[in-house]
Amino acid sequence: MTGLDASFLYLETPSSHMHVASLMVLDPSEADEPVTLEKVKEVYGSRLHLAPPFRRRLVEVPFGLHHPLWIEDPDFDIDYHVRSTALPSPGSDAQLRTLVGRLVAQPLDRSRPLWEVWMIEGLEGGKVGCLSKVHHAAIDGASGNELTVAMLDLSPEIAEHPGGDDWEPDPVPSDIELLGYAATSLARQPVRVAKAGLRTTGAAFALRRRNRESPRLAPPSPFSAPRTELNVPITGRRSFGTTSLSLPAVKAVKKAAGCTVNDVVLALCAGSLRRYLAADGDLPDTPLVAMVPVSVRSDDERDSLGNRVTTTFTSLATDVDDPLARLQVIHDCMVDVKEQQQAIGADTLTDWAEFAAPAVAGRAAKLYSRVNVAGRHRPLFNVTISNVPGPPFSLYSIGAHMEAIYPIGPIADGVGPNMTVMSYRDSLDFGVLACPDVLPDVDRLTDGLHEALADLVEATGVSDDQVDALRSAT
């Protein structure tokens, strides 16, 4: 396990669970047979070779001397990972979101492969929900997307995927073997530290030179975010909100404003957050800061799993009243973020994660949470916003048509909600995870996304004909 992968284990506390998730809403009306728990197990079981993390579990190194290892679990049992639950029929969307919030609040069992799938029956109209949870130590957004697609089909016919018979479990290594591995790896660390130091020094000089030459202000730095009601210590409870926006409308705004779809997504979240905080009388004079995960996965690493991601910070320009001017500020900041990332280099920000001491890092994270340190300093950032591109065509799972897929990212002490979006067909499906003890009405935030899009459509002068033309092209 890499240091970056392991860092998501160390950051986990009783109130902050580091798994990512997604909720699929399935319509089984076209399916050849009913979507049952046994059928879900059968299909997932036949495709486990397409998703290697699903049969791997952790092995901890004694005394926390080094990062854990992955092994092919000799005790793997799919019955533990694929489960079912139900809403009182006919279950509403609101009831589904409440149930998903409760299921997401449950940590994954580290003694088994770090994933679960929950089949949720009883939805209105005979629909079925499918909630998948995978620990962030195993995947990032891009590789998680690949795993999700591996479990889906292009038609109601369930495709065959041969090749699963080659899997072999690993023996569980002894403590002596684990200590030997740790000693060998630690012996090489001084050389790695020296190389990382040289790369970091070079990146610092490159960044300084770039900031001097840039006519624009540098992107916000960590701990420069203003404090709001959303940036306080959290509990282990979770609330979940969903909504879907028109992707053609977003693309029309993007075209009219001369920016990117990701810029528009950030502006939508900014508009919603601004409206939410202003209604509570808590909108700060300085702009909110978003943490935006960025994949640094190269073409050669496209099929690799684990985490190849870095974090960037951008202004959400929530101090700007005009929505179009706000979008322009966000666009300019993201241009600087990309230039800064190129100056630093893809690996510089992840190199130092290799040298974290597991025993120290884990205890430090739990102590930070237990004594509410997040309430005693400025936020590292205000909100997490992640945009994951998805397929523009229909997909099917267990023979049922996938109507929508709502991604779910983790939240942590002091850094507010997680607003993650995935494109699917002609929609942008938003999943918003929050702590109800901090943000009691997550639906206000998702409703605000629609209002923010309406504001941008009006500000850019986008017409219905332009949106329809882009919808037809899609």
UniProtKB/TrEMBL annotation:
A Pfam family recorded for this sequence:
WS_DGAT_cat
Q: What's a BP term from Gene Ontology annotated to this protein? A: triglyceride biosynthetic process
EC number(s) of the enzyme?
2.3.1.20
Q: According to its UniProt record, in which pathway does this protein act? A: Lipid metabolism; Glycerolipid metabolism; triacylglycerol biosynthesis
Lipid biosynthesis among the record's keywords? yes
Q: Which GO terms describe its molecular function?
A: diacylglycerol O-acyltransferase activity
Per the record, what are the reactions this protein catalyses?
an acyl-CoA + a 1,2-diacyl-sn-glycerol = a triacyl-sn-glycerol + CoA
Q: Residues in domain O-acyltransferase WSD1-like N-terminal?
A: 1-265
The record's Gene Ontology cellular component field reads: plasma membrane
Report keywords, A-Z: Acyltransferase, Glycerol metabolism, Lipid biosynthesis, Lipid metabolism, Transferase
Protein name, per record: Diacylglycerol O-acyltransferase
The protein's organism comes out as Iamia majanohamensis
